[in-house]
Fold this protein.
Amino acid sequence: MTETSDLQTADIQLIQRIIPHRYPFLLVDRVVEIDGTRSAVGIKNVTMNEPHFQGHFPGLPIMPGVTIVEAMAQTAAVMVGVTLEMADKEMKVYFMAIDNCKFRRKVVPGDQLRMSLETVRGKPGGKVWKFRGVAEVDGEMAAEAEFTAMMDLPAPVSA
């Protein structure tokens, strides 16, 4: 079994062991950099096969802004989950607030969304965390946001 605390990346198999999201709402494919609970960089490969492109918009597929913010939040959850060794422990994460959210460019099929997240507030054992995220495509900012989340972590097992 891999010790997640020693990892600095997370592939799709580890991501699915940490967060409960699945298709069509699993929106991060890989986390390529994890610096403890301080920061992380996630990757989302945007493909035409995603169901939201059927209606957003027909003939002009654009990734909805809310899914970009969700992808950033999932990256943050993976960062915390990897660092706190939450693989296979059924961690749940819930949005509490989204602030200072701005969208700067369209994200379309074929783009690779690179999401850089940093922790503004939060510590191991704490339930409420705040993050700041920037999503870019080819070095150009697509979106930015600050968001607060509640980490519903399983209680430690006492010996």
